Amino acid sequence: MKRIFVLILLLWSNVNFAQDIRMYTWGEALSANPDSVYGITFEKMKLKSLPDELKNFTQIKRLNLGKNKLVKIPNYIGDMSNLTYLNAERNQLTSFPIVVCRLTALEQLIVNRNNISEVPACIEYATGLEYIDVYDNPITKLPESLMNMGNLKKIDFTGIRFSPKFQDSWKERLPSVELIFDAPCDCMN
After folding, report:
1. Which of 111, 124, 161, 171 is most buried (most C-beta within 10 Å)?
2. What is the pLDDT of residues 165-189, one digit of tens each?
3. Could you tell me the CATH number of the domain that includes residue 59?
4. Does 5 reside within a domain?
5. CB 140 within 8 A of CB 116
6. What pTM does this model have?
7. Sheet of 108-110, strands arranged across
8. Contact between 185 and 167 (Cβ < 8 Å)
9. Rounded to an integer, what distance in angstroms lies between the CA atom of residue 57 and that of residue 30?
10. What DSSP assignment string belongs to 87-99?
11. How many domains does the chain have?
12. Backbone phi and psi for residue 150, each to the nearest 5 degrees, phi listed first
């Protein structure tokens, strides 16, 4: 019985490793060795752009850019090949951050509460994506390439009003993906 408990404990600790990554503030990250920093948060810093020095942190796995005033995500973010979690919620993004398409290790993408109207076709190249949160964006178009994403498990479309036909069509196309929609309306095809 004791061995089973130890085995369960070991398995549980390995599953939760990603959540145990220390999130450095930008000030803390600047005083640390860039190669030893795996998580950085810029949350609520009212930033209009990200500092160029961020590109020196090549080992980043988790990046929180939430609740700022960013209008775009810099191209060098696409070079962060270890990035598994990117949160850019509540910014001022008017287009989907195309750099995400280069992030093959990315598992979770949160871009809710921006002003994004379209998910680009290149999203299929972010092959590790399991979860996409586009809640409360004025999205009117989804790419067919979503159907090529074998690891995709969940997309949150809450706050976006799609017609019953649109919702049924995408549920049929992505039967193994949990699609979270608001109640349908007769407002969009």
Report:
1. 111
2. 999 999 999 999 999 998 876 655 5
3. 3.80.10.10
4. no
5. no
6. 0.87
7. 24-25, 39-41, 62-64, 85-87, 108-110, 131-133, 154-156, 178-180
8. no
9. 10
10. E--SS--SS--GG
11. 1
12. -65, -25
